[in-house]
Automatic annotation (TrEMBL):
<keyword id="KW-0560">Oxidoreductase</keyword>
<keyword id="KW-0862">Zinc</keyword>
<keyword id="KW-0444">Lipid biosynthesis</keyword>
<keyword id="KW-0479">Metal-binding</keyword>
<keyword id="KW-0963">Cytoplasm</keyword>
<keyword id="KW-0594">Phospholipid biosynthesis</keyword>
<dbReference type="Pfam" id="PF13685">
    <property type="entry name" value="Fe-ADH_2"/>
</dbReference>
<keyword id="KW-0443">Lipid metabolism</keyword>
<keyword id="KW-0521">NADP</keyword>
<dbReference type="GO" id="GO:0016614">
    <property type="term" value="F:oxidoreductase activity, acting on CH-OH group of donors"/>
</dbReference>
<dbReference type="GO" id="GO:0046872">
    <property type="term" value="F:metal ion binding"/>
</dbReference>
<dbReference type="InterPro" id="IPR016205">
    <property type="entry name" value="Glycerol_DH"/>
</dbReference>
<protein>
    <recommendedName>
        <fullName>Alcohol dehydrogenase iron-type/glycerol dehydrogenase GldA domain-containing protein</fullName>
    </recommendedName>
</protein>
<dbReference type="InterPro" id="IPR032837">
    <property type="entry name" value="G1PDH"/>
</dbReference>
<dbReference type="GO" id="GO:0008654">
    <property type="term" value="P:phospholipid biosynthetic process"/>
</dbReference>
<keyword id="KW-0520">NAD</keyword>
<keyword id="KW-1208">Phospholipid metabolism</keyword>
Length: 333
């Protein structure tokens, strides 16, 4: 399977040209991005699928009785594009993605994630044929949302530590060459922090290029271990316990901070970089209460065992009440 999109095109004001070649297509989107894009689109899709959740029952209900089409176009952020991947996979059609924000790596990654009773489930893969990155549209989105995409790269900081820890404990094999390339991605992110903060053309290109480099690392290893560890497991458990979705970047950022602190107080370096990019990682940014974070941490070991997730710092250190107090002491709620 080809994990990378066949083509990524960059430009300005070219959404109409991206869509006008499609004769028989369906759009998956959400209200805000569609309202931004529709004025630039002249040819009408056969159907517009507006998605609010990737919960299995809701996804299956939305995909009943869809028309025959040649192409699915996912327009929006991670939610809309995940739905596009799901529909294109189900109907075995071409997939085109048009991100309106770069808050997550969904536009270039093939994995299809749904929620089953708020548990994350990867159920299939669909690689985009083309990705159209329109700088005008992306720069219309709130800067904080676009910057948040960096947290999908920063997760390697904690994930690589977890991977090495699991290898040291005899649970799996650690590949130095893959890990080194993951560290190089973090270095490139830091080198371009100012451009990413500004959401400049260079900053946007840098993030998308890093998404694809991490995709290559995951393909080389065979799964997402090089960029997904305890920080994502924290995020998954919070979603599971609270039964609601969150902005992906700040949620993962919170997980990075907490797990880096749990990893022998490694948070200072990554916090400096998050602050340099002006990233949100405090609970108040995603409207999470102290009690909810406390509950997520106190049940984290139970959750990773229930879900049979890979070995991480969560399995290594007991997270008791005193440890939770230490983890939360400087966070803003």
């Amino acid at each position: 399977m080809n994990w990378r999109p066949n083509e990524v095109k960059y430009g300005r004001n070219f959404i109409q040209s991206a869509i006008e070649d499609q004769e028989s297509f369906l759009v998956t989107t959400t209200e805000v991005p569609w309202n931004i894009v529709k004025k630039r689109v002249q040819n009408e899709p056969k159907k517009k699928v507006f998605v609010k959740s990737m919960e299995r029952a809701k996804v299956e209900n939305l995909t009943k009785n869809l028309p025959d089409i040649d192409t699915v176009i996912g327009i929006g952020g991670g939610l809309a594009i995940d739905m596009g991947k799901f529909v294109a996979w189900k109907k075995d059609t071409r997939l085109v993605t048009i991100p309106t924000v770069i808050s997550a790596d969904a536009m270039v990654t093939p994995a299809i994630a749904i929620r089953d009773d708020w548990n994350v489930r990867y159920i299939g893969y669909k690689t985009a044929d083309k990705v159209f990155v329109d700088f005008d549209i992306i720069q219309e989105a709130p800067e904080a949302y676009n910057r948040g995409g960096a947290e999908d790269i920063l997760s390697s900081y904690t994930a690589l530590y977890d991977w090495k820890l699991a290898s040291d404990r005899g649970y799996e094999t650690y590949h130095e060459n893959i890990a080194k390339k993951g560290e190089e991605c973090l270095e490139k992110l830091e080198k371009n922090a100012t451009e990413i903060k500004k959401v400049s053309e260079k900053g946007i290109k840098t993030l998308i290029d890093l998404y694809m480099k991490e995709l290559d690392l995951c393909k080389a290893f065979g799964n997402s271990r090089p960029e997904e560890g305890s920080e994502h497991f924290f995020a998954y458990n919070l979603e599971y316990l609270t039964k609601r979705p969150y902005r992906h970047g700040p949620l993962v950022g919170l997980g990075i901070y907490l797990m880096a602190k749990l990893q022998n107080e490694r948070q200072e370096k990554i916090v400096d970089l998050m602050d340099k990019i002006d990233l949100n990682y405090h609970p108040m940014e995603i409207d999470v209460a102290r009690s909810e974070v406390r509950a997520t941490l106190s049940t984290l070991e139970w959750y990773v065992e229930k879900e049979r997730l890979p070995y991480t710092i969560i399995n290594e250190k007991g997270i008791n009440k005193e440890k939770i107090r230490e983890l939360l002491e400087v966070l803003e709620f």
